Sequence to fold (370 residues):
Amino acid sequence: MSMKFSVKIPTFLDERLSSAPTTGGKRPGPAKVLTAQLSEFGINETMLNLDKLSLAMKYKAAMVLSEIGIDLLSKALPLTPVDSGELRRSGEVTLQFFPGYKVVASGSGEGQVVVRDAEVPLSKLRSVNKMDMLVQFYRTNEFGEDIALWTHEDINYYTSKQSPRARTEGTGPKYLETPWMENKGDYVGMLYELANIRDSVKRATRVVRKGKGKTDVDVITLDTNKLLSRVIRRA
Amino acid sequence: MADSVASSLKTYLGALVASHTICDELGAALTFGTNLFIGIEPETTNCVTIIPYGGAPPSFDGSRQEAALQVRVKADTVKKALDVSQSIINTLHNNSSICTGRFSAVQSIPIILGVQEAGDNVITVSNYIVRYVKI
Fold:
């Protein structure tokens, strides 16, 4: 595959002006145009590789964010106050990839994480340039009170006049913030690892030597399937 | 002997003059044991309680710490509870003169937890992360 570039280079304007008559003469003629043709090959392969790499990075980001969200929810659910189990069941991990989103996991009344589908279709990721992970609980009671917020934020001790926020031992307020505080260092480390894809790229790389005139050129091709499988394995 | 972050905040709030916006909204200067408390909120109306709740683990060398605490306001009207809480957020956010660290408010506006004691009192809370170096 080859591409041609045409570069138009005008001659120096100063040179033409200095040689032109100063008074009563003709105006300078049109600038001379030199045309140089550059012939390259491998550009398409390079652009294709960059596209595959970008897709793999997005895919890996989606997988890592989902993993972080699922891990956080799995640590939060056992601490979440349980009465009817509705609050625990309202726990959700949502991956937001603008302009779309996907609920990848939710909670069960028993405090377990139910992973729905952590896989994000590649076709959805092509145009994505920002991703967020959201772990949230949402529960209101029959009076419209925000039970999820109340049970999370009311950290004062009970008194005889108050209904207990947590009726089960081991559960209590700050059920989401506490595991986040305890583990956010690990989560940041996982996000740092996103950029570490050198080994994955190396294993997915295929090099074919092609001759071009008197020169041999290594044309590099990235195997998408291998790249994604390596990325998934690492994530 | 080092003061805890909650104790430093108690000293800071207790030293505020009566004309400060927090005291003005509450209707009285803050006095420890009267309308300013640490740890457990009493059955007093129009009071501020500081409740520490841990925070993130210290850094590996143990010197850099992130404490977390909640400031709870109980007042006899919704407006007063919200106004006092908002004044506390405005005063404490990015404040580095309370202890050796810097206070960061987690919320920009207070959270209403609802009414208590047969509807006589309204509770609002605001949370803070305090980043500091242990000395």
